[in-house]
Design a protein that fits this description.
By secondary structure, the chain is an alpha/beta fold. The protein folds into 2 domains: 193 residues, Rossmann fold, CATH 3.40.50; 173 residues, Glycogen Phosphorylase B (Rossmann fold), CATH 3.40.50. It contains 16 helices and 13 strands. The protein has a 7-stranded mixed beta sheet with strand order 3-2-1-4-5-6-7, with helices on both faces. Helix 1 crosses helix 16, helix 7 packs across helix 11 and helix 8 packs across helix 14. The longest helix has 19 residues. The chain is globular and about 65 Å long. The N and C termini lie close together (10 Å). The relative contact order is 0.12.
Amino acid sequence: MKDKLMQVAFNATALLSPLTGIGQYAHHLALGLQQLGDVNANFFYGSGWSAEVRTKPLPSVTTIKTLVRRLLPNSYGVARAIQQHQFSKGARRTRYDIYHEPNFLAYRFEGPSAITVHDLSWIRFPEMHPVERVRAMDKYFQPGLERASLILTDSEFVKHELMDVFGVKPERIRPVLLGVEALFYPRSADETRAVLDAHGLVHGQYILAVGTLEPRKNLAVALRAFMQLAPSLRKRFPLVLVGMKGWHTSALEQQIAPLIAAGEIRQLGYLPREDLAKIIAGATTLIYPSIYEGFGLPPLEAMACGVPVITSNVSSIPEVVGETGLMLDPQDVDGFARGMETLLTAPEVREAMARKALARSAQFTWASCVSQTVEAYRLVLNKS
């Protein structure tokens, strides 16, 4: 395969939704494949194929999804059957060397395939996912896993999860750490001012929490810890929440409402990447008490901005944060409160942590992620 142009089929449907963790992974990997001279990647968007890396739904995809949801009870299963048909039809037209599924649920494919497994959260914590999502994962995940010639994971932690839960042999799994894009770097108050002014924020005077509002992100702990801070600190350093609304958030929203009214919490929702990078760079600290992660991009993005992280000591997070952040049991409300107070009131501690975090973040690049992924493809193809 060394001298031949590698033909790669890549499922890019994750790019058609707002780009959270898996979407960011798929996006950067797709862009990286597109830029390599010895790889020809073609991208599947649910109803058709394209050589372009897109981040907006094709009209036909939106129409199919809307009609199926409206008319049929088993909407996911029907939509998937339609997409499998379209995928197979396109795959038959081109002789692909390998198919890569970057988002858990692989289509059937006649040939070598790679699947990226980001975590097993729907198995470890099914109560933290919608029932429909768990049902779909239970039905479609394992058959794709068993068909895969190569299994990629975001961390060593997920590799061991697959070995533990599914009995996958370690030689079938290749951990490839994710990267941080150049957009995330330390910025001065002048560089962040325009975006921060638009949201009524002051550089270096707010605590940040980033992540979809859903149970697994454990923002209730961040909220309870924040409420333990002295009122004067809460007024000076509001808690800023960035991320899409997920599911099962009504109780959290009820808790947040009076604090938003008091100006102690700012809820910004989903932000464009350029704005997010400036919001992160202007934060005093990032609080990330997630219960379970396969990697955890927000802590890495904060580290790359020179922002110290207070986070959980579970799952893959220690692989990312290393010795640069405060890591605690995800249910340790008192510990998170003490960590916030320390970083808000002890600038010398904060600055030392920030320097370590920035240095460690340089180890994680998307270029490395892409090159290691393509190297893994080649190992599979050289064996076949």
